[in-house]
Amino acid sequence: MTIRCIVVEDEPLAMDVMVDFINQVPFLILEKTCTDAIAAMKILNENKIDLIFLDIHLPKLKGLDFLSTLKNPPMVIITTAYHEFALKSYDYNVLDYLLKPIEFSRFMVAVQKAANHVNKEVFVSEEPTKEGLFFTVNKKKARVAFHSIIYIESQREQVKIVTETNTIHTRIALSELEKQLPDSFLRIHRSYIVSKLKIDFVDAREIELRGKYLPIGRSYKNEVHLALGIK
Description:
Blueprint: E1 3-8, H1 12-23, E2 28-34, H2 37-46, E3 51-54, H3 63-69, E4 75-80, H4 86-89, E5 96-99, H5 104-118, E6 123-124, E7 132-137, E8 140-145, E9 149-154, E10 159-163, E11 167-170, H6 174-179, E12 185-189, E13 192-195, E14 199-202, E15 206-209, E16 212-215, H7 221-227
Parallel strand pairs: 1-2, 1-3, 3-4, 4-5
Antiparallel strand pairs: 6-7, 7-8, 9-10, 9-13, 10-11, 12-13, 14-15, 15-16
């Protein structure tokens, strides 16, 4: 197993620390380093990158603003001296949040999360059928029918697909999975996609499906109400 990574950091000393830490971990391959998010965008467009070590306070474009521009980001570990952005950062499904000065032992905890993520054996196929999606579970193919899916939730390190009978976890980005779903599914929040066929109740703020209440994101409200015919 190898994890190809980049470091986005504008402080030379902090950059040196991260490069030294990465070089001590055999399965981490440091592809590039850069000092701002604009350069990082170029690297991501030109290289296959599995993991970003990302500072928050960057010139030109802040770290979290940079993440919001990425349609299908790789794994992300935040590195910063500011603890107040920790909760907000998890809205972007980051793997971990490291506070400077970073100790190597704490760095290894974060890196191990990345390794565990890569080693997960459950992932979605890139070729869905008209009836559902195929997943690999314990080296066997398992089909999840579209009609059985209740909702899909983007969690901190993975996507959770809740069906009528079970729950499946996969590493695919929610935005990427959304492309493979039929029109009977609706994005209602940064973290949620629901089956319109499973909706029991809906109001201005949330949707109920099988007794589960899910929030409607502010930026999705008009689109959701239009799709459901709500005035």
